[in-house]
Amino acid sequence: MVIFWSLALAVTAIASAALYYAGAARGVNAGQSDLDSPERRHLKAQLAEIEADRAIGRLGDEEAIAARAELAREALKLKSESGSKGGVEAGARRAVTLLSIAATAILAGLTYSVLGSPDMPARPLAERTEEIAAEKATEGLSLTDAVAKIEAQLAQTPDDIRGWTVIAPAYMQLGRYADAEKALRKVIAAEGPTADRETDLGEALMMEKGGDATGEPMDLFRSAAVRDPAHVRSRYYMAGELTRIGRFVEAEAAWASLLALSKGGEAWVANAEAGLAFARNKGVMPTDPATGTPGGSLPDQSAIEGMVEGLSSRLDTSGGTIEEWTRLVRSRLVLDQKDLAQKAYDAARAAFPDASVRTELDVLAADNGLVATK
Amino acid sequence: MSIELGHFALTLAFAIAAVSAVLGVMFWKRAEMVAGWLQQGAVLQFLLVAASFGALIQAFVTSDYSLKLAYDHANSAQPLIYKITAVWGNHEGSMVLWVLILVIMGAAVAAFGRNLPKDLLSLVLSLQSMLTASFIGFTLFTSNPFLRLSPAPFEGQDLNPVLQDIGLAIHPPLLYVGYVGFSIAFSFAIAALISGRIDAAWARWVRPWALVSWCFLTLGIAMGSYWAYYELGWGGWWFWDPVENASFMPWLSGTALLHSALVMEKRNALKIWTIFLSIITFSLSLLGTFMVRSGVLTSVHSFASDPTRGLVILSMLAVFIGGAFSLFALRVNSLRAGGLFAPISREGALILNNLFLATATVAVLVGTLYPLLLEALTGDTISVGAPFFNITFGAVMAPLLVVLPFGPFLAWKRGDFVAVAQRLAGAGALALFLTILGFALSGASISLAPLGLLLGFWVAFGALAELVDRAKFFRTDVMTSLRRLVGLPRTAWATALAHFGVGVTVLGIVAASAWQAEVITTVDTGQTLTINNYAVTFDGKDVEQGPNYVAQRGHFTIASPAEPTRTAIAERRTYTQSGMPTTEADIETYGFSQLYIQLGEPGPDGKTVVRLWYKPYVTLIWLGCLVMAGAGFLSLSYRRQRVGAPRPAQVRVAAE
Question: DSSP string covering B158-174, please?
């Protein structure tokens, strides 16, 4: 608001200065004598034209003489008129100009203060990506629509890092891992790496390769763990990957150091403990040896199960979007937990009674034989 | 912030204009006192309004829906060009465009007016400022484009789909330059009435402004007509719609003004006519603005109707027009009489021209206003349709067109009608021959159409005959004539071309109206329709997704005897945001003629309705207008002194 009024004042000041310069400071008739008035110039030009016309024979001598006499009379008349004019005092001119400037500034200021909204900022859509995402969460704007909208804005303002930051997790939710990777790389390139950003990027790369974290994802997790000695997610993925590829000794150490960070009661602790036991047992689930073909009960499966449980408990306790419920039902179905899927579906229907927002979920449920009970 | 700065810039321009208006009227007799301020003020008004307009454009382009105007009339899915044109595709924004052009004109007077007498300049600038202050005031207080919304919506409503067309980028700005440009002639006329300063020099200063406005108005009307023709989807190019009439009336009186100002500049005659026409023309522009902007008319142009706005414009109209005519009545006797001339002379012909054009203007005015007044007074709604206008307007224009070719041949001061008729005999014979030929070839039944053709050819060839005559073709050897033709002053070329353009337009109107063919039917895929030697085959439909619409597209193949086969696509679009449909006709141009294909609704039996028109020589209508406007610009480029040399006579007559 202060900035606005300073700018408005500056504009007014510049305009006033220009008006003062033109109205009072600069001489108006400098260099213009009566002999050079516009009327006289016009008469001279006409005289020249008459001469030219006579020279090429378009005008007879008699007409030319008559016309010249007419022009001469006009010129005399002008001279007598202009002679009677008095000059204008510089002081009077300055007074009129200053008064006028004051009137202008007051009129403009009054009018604007009645009509204007000086405290309202501009809200171009490109700078509102976070709001759009929030809107999506609170008003149920579909995730796909929100992403499409943010993408459209980003196409025009590709340097809007906040936009990329907002859109990356949305891409992850929609399973568009390659797009998420692209967005995250932009964010890291522009604003530098942090433990969270590196882990996010690693996660995206890992999901792109169907859960394989070898190579760059692993390097990113390591780098994140180094960057933040208390970073949980990166260590969790590292431990999971070491277990998956069968480096159980390192995996055991990794799970142990992860568990050391626990303050107790976190959702991931149960999974980490299961992972630790699994690694100690060299790849066999100790509690359930019967299912234990090595690799048959993959630890990353347990990691996935842990994430699903986490999502489930969060949705049960604090609710969530319809997309998250749909994701939960889908995960339950993938994990072949049909009963739990049915339970999640029932809960989702209770949370979102409006069928129009549930289309994707209802289709998924119907395809997999879940029942919609009244 | 930029929006609010734009808003502030507009209020500051308003304040400068208001103070300038008062200053000029108070001090014009001591013009040295205020001339500097007024000139600088005009330039500042332009800069500030331009900044304010820029702020609106920026808000639209960046989809800033905290601006209510952008929310109401734009959508983030629109292509960039329509985000920009949407700024003036609505009432508030178009008023800002109107004001912008007004201040551009004012700044141009200030910049190019350094050779004007200071008192005249001060009065003109002060009157322009008065207009500017009134219109910015109207905009700010009754239709403020800078209203804000909080919280800002995420998506805007759409622009009326009919307006989502390149036409909106061109038609309003052209038309507004035309309308508003006449304000300069108006201000000059009022200034002349106040100061009593009116002479050939005055006419020389006014004429270019009137000419520029007239050229742009011509282009604007032609563009509007072509836009309606291709976008509204039923092939009509002029509807005598009140809004069209609103632009046509200033054109008619502006045409008369041009001719009067010419006489005044060359001969110092027709002063009262010129002043009168200057006032009338801008008054009609204001009246047009009132009719379109007040909501008394409902059409694609009246974006919103609001009785308050109507009343405010009406009172502005009353003040400006009433004030101007009162001043005219008071001061007209003090104007010095102009030069003398005989009835049969160039001056006489131009007065005849003025009378005809003024009568035509009145005819259109009556037809346009009568239903409105009747409805306002008695509540009865009647509609004055095309037949009324065609008959009354035609009845006035036909004699004008008959005598038009004579005008340029007549000498200043006193002319010889018989001699002119002899010199025009060739053009008349040629016109008659071509008419009979065209009539015979077309095989049409007896009607008024051949007379229309004859008139068109007569005007066109009569105009060219003047060039032929002045170049002395057939009276000396060809090479000398060609050299003379090239050496003719540009004004002679401009006159001939402008009149030639009138003839061309008349020919287009007559041919397209009299010999149009139409087929409306339902078709199956693969079916072929025949219209005027063209075989049009319907190849089926598909659906295309546009940026903010879904289009049903009908594919056609057109076989013609003379040209290679063409394919055509006619669309019906439905705009996603508003759900409004539009038709996008396919128009194929063959020579000067056009084939117009419109895809209709799907029929009940699975067939598709298709409308076909064949419009012979229809493009001549707009080409003629282009020629007229081009001739105007040509004349504008010629800035030598214009002195009308009188025809030698036995008695010497002084010019006064």
Answer: PP-GGG-SHHHHHHHHH
Q: Is the pLDDT of residue B18 over 60?
A: yes
Is 90 exceeded by the pLDDT of residue B182?
A: yes
Q: How far apart are CA B256 and CA B362, in angstroms?
A: 13
Preceding amide of B371 cis, omega within 30: no
Domain boundaries, chain A: 1-24+90-121, 124-192, 319-374
**B250/A290 Cα distance (integer angstroms):** 97
| CB neighbour burial string for B612-636, b if at least 16 within 10 angstroms, e if fewer | bbbbbbbbbbbbbbbbbbbbbebbb
Contact B516, B615 (CB under 8 A): yes
Q: Does A22 touch chain B (CB under 8 A)?
A: yes
Q: How far is CA B144 from CA A207, B96, B309, in A?
A: 53, 9, 11
Close Cβ partners of B237 (under 8 Å, ≥ 6 residues apart): B225, B226, B228, B229, B512, B618, B621
A-proximal residues of B, 1-60, CB under 8 Å:
1-5, 7-9, 11-12, 14-16, 18-19, 23, 27, 30, 32-37, 39-41, 44, 48, 59
Q: Which residue has the tokens 């630790």?
A: A276
Question: Can you list the alpha helix ranges (DSSP code H) found in B31-77?
Answer: 35-61, 68-73
Q: Which of B28, B413, B641, B653 to mutate to test the interface with A (most CBs of A within 10 A)?
A: B641
Topology of A124-192 in CATH?
Answer: 1.25.40
Instruction: Read off the tokens for B346.
Output: 């160039």
- CA–CA separation, B276 vs B266, rounded Å? 18
- Amino acid B650: pLDDT: 45
Contact (Cβ atoms closer than 8 angstroms) between residue B511 and residue B618: yes
Taking alpha carbons only, the member of B499, B510, B528 closest to residue B634 is B499
Task: Decide if B290 contacts B313 (C-beta within 8 A).
Answer: yes
Burial class (CB in 10 A: 0-12, 13-18, 19+), B639: exposed
Mean pLDDT across the stretch B95-117? 88
Q: Name the A residues in 83-112 with CB < 8 Å from any B CB.
A: 87-88, 92-93, 96-97, 100, 103-105, 107-108, 111-112
As a whole number, the mean pLDDT across chain B is: 84
Structure tokens given for B19: 């103070």
Regarding predicted confidence, which is higher, A52 or B218?
B218
Chain B interface includes A39 (CB < 8 A): yes
CB contact under 8 A, A123 and B64: yes
**Residues B517-558 pLDDT 10s:** 888 888 888 888 888 888 999 988 888 887 778 888 989 999
Give the DSSP letter of residue B67.
B
Nearest-angstrom CA–CA distance, A342 and B147: 52
Q: Is the ipTM of this complex over 0.85?
A: no
B519: three-class secondary structure by DSSP: strand
Contact B335, B272 (CB under 8 A): yes
